[in-house]
Amino acid sequence: MAQLWHELRGGQALPNRDLMTARRVKDLLPDIAFYERFTGPDGHWRHRVRLEGMRFVRIYGSHTGQVVQDYLAPEHARRFCMGLNTTLAAMAPLRFLARTDSADENFVSAEFCTLPLAGKDGQAAIVLVAAHFNAVAWETYFEEAMDRLKTVQAKSLASAARVSAVKTAI
Predict the structure, then answer these.
(1) What does the mean pLDDT of the chain come to?
(2) Do 23 and 64 lie in a common domain?
(3) Segments forming the whole domain that contains residue 38
(4) Number of structural domains in the chain
(5) Do 31 and 93 fall within a single domain?
(6) Do both 71 and 151 map to the same domain?
(7) Are residues 89 and 152 in the same domain?
(8) Does residue 103 share a domain with residue 61?
(9) How far apart are CA 91 and CA 9, in angstroms?
(10) 163 and 108 fall within a common domain
(11) Taking the chain (170 residues) in consecutive chunks of 10 residues, what is each chunk's mean pLDDT?
């Protein structure tokens, strides 16, 4: 998903939402949701669900067209919207791990890739969230994710050391 985001971005700061078509993400449609940030009547940012895939609906319920701050409890809405706002501020794809409780599942561990998109005016206003839900206990899931991260970081450091050694030798 992040690779597609970079390809669609081209030379722009962000890819435009209109470029992220259903045809391009058809295999991921059940696992994605689009959230649009707008300024509410009170002057504060709010977030509307523009589209949500069926796995999102199964885990969280159907909220297309609704404002996040209107259907989530205030403490949950603040935390969730903080992730959306952080993504828009970063102007880059981000990764989040989370534990989610829902009506139908005792626990769901999830990994989210959040991708900022430009609205029609070219400004960062939309977040595409791609999710991978897993019915693994949070503690186990988190430990495994951290182990994967450490492995990737070690490979990156080893690769950087090899490149540095080659350049130093030249």
Answers:
(1) 86
(2) yes
(3) 2-135
(4) 2
(5) yes
(6) no
(7) no
(8) yes
(9) 11
(10) no
(11) 90 92 90 95 95 89 94 91 96 88 66 93 94 79 82 75 54
Report the alpha-carbon distance of residue 28 to residue 4 in Å, rounded.
12
The DSSP result for the chain, as a single string, is -HHHHHHHHTTSSS-BGGGS-TTTTGGGGGGEEEEEEEE-TTSSEEEEEEEE-HHHHHHH---TT-BHHHHS-HHHHHHHHHHHHHHHHHTS-EEEEEEE--SS-S-EEEEEEEEEEE-TTSSEEEEEEEEEEE-S-HHHHHHHHHHHHHHHHHHHHHHHHHHHHHHHH-
Q: Are residues 56 and 101 in the same domain?
A: yes
What digits encode the pLDDT tens for the residues 35-56?
A: 999 999 999 999 999 999 998 8
pTM of the model: 0.80
Residue 170: its pLDDT value, please?
A: 53
